[in-house]
Amino acid sequence: MTATAAPAAARPARLRPAAAPGRLLRAAREHWFFTLLFAAGAVGRLLALQAYRPLLSNLDSFWYVGNSGPLLPQGEDPIGYSLVIRGFEDVANLLTLAAFQHLLGLAAGLCVYALLWRRGAPRSLAGLAAAPILLDAYQWQMEEYLLSDAVFLAMITGALALLAWRRRPGAKALAAAGLLLGASVVVRSIGEVAIVPALLFALWACGPRWTLRLRSAALLLAGFLLPVLLYAWDMQSNTGQFTPTSATGAAMLYGRAATVAHCASMPPDLAAICPTGTVAQRLATGPDFYDNNPGSPLAKIANDPDAPNLEHRFGMYVIEHRPAAFASAVGRDFAALFLSPRQDVPGATPISRWQFFTTYPIWADDRTPASLFGSVGEQSASANTGLAQGLLDYQLGGGYTPGYFFGAALLAGLAGSAGLTRRARRSPLRPACFLFTAGALALLLGADLFQFSWRYQLPALTLLPLGGALGLMALLGLDKRPRPPLAAYPDPIDAAAVRDFHDRYGERPDLAPVVIVIAAYNEAEAIGPVLESLPAACRGLRVAALVVVDAATDATAQVALEHGAYTCVADQNRGQGAALRLGYRLAREGGAQYIVTTDADGQYDSAQLPRLLAALLDGEADFVTGSRVLGSHQTRDPVRQLGCRVFAFVVSRLMHTRVTDTSFGFRAMRAEVPASLTLEQPQYQSSELLISVLAAGYRVAEVPMTIRQREAGQTKKGGNLVYGFRYARVVLRTWWRERRRAGQPPSAVAVAGEERLAENTQPSKSTNLITNTNP
C-alpha cells in the first residue's frame, strides 16, 4: 500500500483574545507558587518604601547626588546613576526613584522565573530560583538605598537574560544585550568584567559554524563598546584619562595588596607606602582602610601626580611576588558568601551597614540628611520606627538567602556547564548555564579582588540561582517542560490526522476484530521487526496493526506503510498518550472488538499475545495488562526496577487493591473501555489508564509477561529522576481527579463495569484478577 501525503491541518477558527486582566488571572493561578513569592516580595518592598522617606542614604549617596548637577565622569563611581537621579529630579522626586528601584527588583525576579519557564524548567524549580531576589531583605534594603546597586543588578540580569532567552540569540538580542552591558559599566565600573562570559557564550551558542559565532561575538562586543567608549571619550575630554577606572582601580588594587604585602623585600619607593603591622593585623583592618582612610600610607602621596602609577606598581609587585597570599585573601572573602548565618567578615564593611535602620542614619556631622536632600529640594529624611523594626526583625530572623543555597547553586552551575554527566554533555542548556554561572563568578570575584562588601554580593541573588537551576536541568535532562494536559478529543491535530487516515483508507475502513495500536515517534529502526513479529490472527480472530506516528522526523511512517500496517500520521508531536488516544478511537471506529497496545521499540514479546487476550475472550476481565513482576524482565537498570515496585505499591494503596506493575505497555481491553474514560495525559499515560479503569469499576487482570532490553533507538522517557518525578505526578493527579468524581453520579459505562464485576467470574490460574470498587 502506498503512502499518501498527509493533508495540512485545518486552521482553527480565529478566537478573540481574552481580556488582559483575564489572562493575567489565569496565569497567576497556573503559576500560583511564583505568584505567592512575587506577592510576598511586593509586600516587603512596599513596607520598606513606607519605612523611610524619601529613601535611605549612604556616604556614597552624597557623591551621586552632588554629581547629578554637573554630571562629571569619574572612574570608581561613574555618572550613570547620577544621571538616573537627575532624571527623577526633573520629572518626579526621590521617593519615586525608590519605588522605581523596588520595581526593578520585582522585575528581576519575574525575569528569572520567565527565563527558566521558557527554557523548560518545572514551575517549582523556577519559583525556587526566583525566591532569593524576591524575598531577600538585604536586597529590599539595597533597593531602598540611594545607591547604584539595584539599577546595576537589573541591567546585568536583563542583559544576560536577553542572551539566554532563545537557544541561539538573534542579532537584535545580541546588540541589545551588548548595549545594556556597556551601559552597566557607566553605572558601576565592575560591569566591564561581564562582557567576558557573554562573549564566550556567543562563541559557544550562536550557530553551528565558526563564522556565524564570530560575527555574533563581534556584534555583541560592538554593542558593549559603544557606551563604554563614549563614556571614555567624555572622561578624556573632562579629566584627561581615557580608561574609566585607571586611577581608582590602582588605589583599590593597592588596598587589597597592602593587606598581604611583605614590606622588607620591596624596592624602596614601594616600601615607602607599605603599611606597618603584621599580615594578620592588616587583613583584619581590611582593604577599604588602606584605599580610603586618611590614616593609610597613601596619604603620603596624595598630591603626587604619579600616585596612580605607584599604586599600580605596588599591587602588581605583590601579585607577582606573593601570589598565594594574595589569592588566599581574595578566596577567603569569596568564600564568605557561602557561609551561614550571614555575619561580619574581618576587614570588610560591617554588615550592619546593609541592615535596616530603626532610626534614620546620620553618617557625619557635615553629611546630614538635611544637607543631602535639601540640595535637591527634598524634605529632610525620616524613618518609621515600627515598620523599620519589623523589617529588621525579618532580616535578622532569617529573611535572607542562606549561604549553602548559593553554594549548591554554584556547584550545580559548574557541574552543568562542565557537562559532568552524559545527559548534561548533550543538553542544549549548557551554554546558558555557563553564561549565568561564569557571569556570577566574574562579578563576585571581580569585586572581591579589591575588597569584600555584602553590598557587592547582590548579583549572586539572580545569577547564581539561574545558573544553578539551568545546571540542574542539564544534569537531569530537563530540557523540555512537561507537556500540558491534552484538550478534549478531537482537537485540531486529531481532526487533521483522522482526515488523512480516511483519505488513505476510506471513510469506514474495516480493520479487524483485534487491533494492535502502536504509538511511534522516531522508531524507524525498531518498528519494522515489531510489525513483522505480529501474528495475522490470534485465537481465531483476525489481527491488524495500527501505527500512530506522532510527528516523527525520521522514516517511521514510511517503514510502517511498507510493512502493511494501517498508519495514521499526526503533524505535531504531542506524546505517547495523545497518539494512543487517537489510535483507540480509530480502532473502535474501524470495527475493533478488542484493542491491544504495544511499544514500537521491540521490548514486548508478540508471541505472548494469546495469553494477553485469554482473560478477555474467556469473559474473565475487561482490561488485561502484562506484569514484569509476575513474569520476568531483561532490563539492567536497578533504579527502574525499584521504581516499578514502588509505584505498584503506591497505586495499590491509593486504589485499595493489589497491583504489581503500573507501567507495562503490553495491554489488551474491550474496545469500549478507553472510549468511556477521561484520557488527558500526553506522557506517562499507562498509570492514568490503569487508575481510570479501576476507578470506573471495570474488571482488571494482570498476567505474567516478559519485557526485553531495547535493541534500537533511544528512550523518550528521560532520566530516572525526571521520569520518576513526572510519573508520580501523573499517578497522583489521576487518582485525585477520579476521587473527586467518585461522589458524582456514575456514568452508564461505569455502572456496566460494576455489573460485570458483580458476575464474579472465576479467573484462570494464570491471571491476577484485581477487584476494586472503592477508589
TrEMBL record:
Query: Where is composition skewed (Polar residues) in this entry?
Result: 759-775
What keywords is this UniProt entry annotated with? Membrane, Transmembrane, Transmembrane helix
- Which Gene3D superfamilies does the UniProt record give? Spore Coat Polysaccharide Biosynthesis Protein SpsA, Chain A
Enumerate the spans annotated as Glycosyltransferase 2-like domain.
516-673
Q: Which family does it belong to?
A: Belongs to the glycosyltransferase 2 family.
Species annotation: Actinocrinis puniceicyclus
Q: What is this protein called?
A: Glycosyltransferase family 2 protein
Q: What is the lineage of its organism?
A: Bacteria, Bacillati, Actinomycetota, Actinomycetes, Catenulisporales
Q: Where are the transmembrane segments?
A: 32-52, 94-117, 146-165, 177-204, 216-233, 432-452
Domain of life of the source: Bacteria
Annotated spans, Disordered: 746-775
What SUPFAM superfamilies does its record include?
Answer: Nucleotide-diphospho-sugar transferases
